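Title: Prediction job returns without error message
Component: structure pipeline
Severity: low
Priority: P3
Assignee: unassigned

Description:
Job completed but the reporter wants confirmation the result is attached to the right record. Sequence as submitted:
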Amino acid sequence: MITGTKVTLRMFEESDLDAYAKIVNNLSNATPYWPSGLQPKANLKKEFSENSFWKDDYKLLLVTDKDGKMIGEVDTFKSSPNIKGPEVGFRMFEKKNMGRGFMSEALRLFSAYLFQTDSTYLRLTLLIHSKNTASLKVAEKCGYKKEGTLRNAWADYSTGIPHSDEILSLLRDESPSLIDLLQKQ
């Protein structure tokens, strides 16, 4: 568990799965910047039973507020065998929690954690929809720097319209240490 001043990052527990399934399957909370497909609870439970959403090539943590309510998630996954560091993702579950600093703190803590726990990581990469100004602000607030644009990187899940992603990265020497972040609280 990683506890900040506004949020806690923690691994999933089996008791989280029913509530998590309700959250991720509530498409009224979906944004145009995140896949909006349904995830059967049985599939989530099966994956959890196999690896607790924590594997060498994919890790998923819950973001909770100070009251322990699930408000978002952060994840990391291998994006390319040639890049010395994973891709990172993040999302808030409900719009009412956006713009309150929760995800900025979560991303900052998660990034520092990743660098602390794997010395082979030279960089962390974010791919963010070019029109997702809120997530771009979160990334830049956490020290990620824009490197370029992946033009027509993916197609909208419902319309097929192509969209571009901004490539942002955080290098190891640009990230505060996890210890420093936790001591500043």
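Comment from assignee: result matches the submitted record. The domain at 2-183 is CATH 3.40.630.30 (Aminopeptidase).
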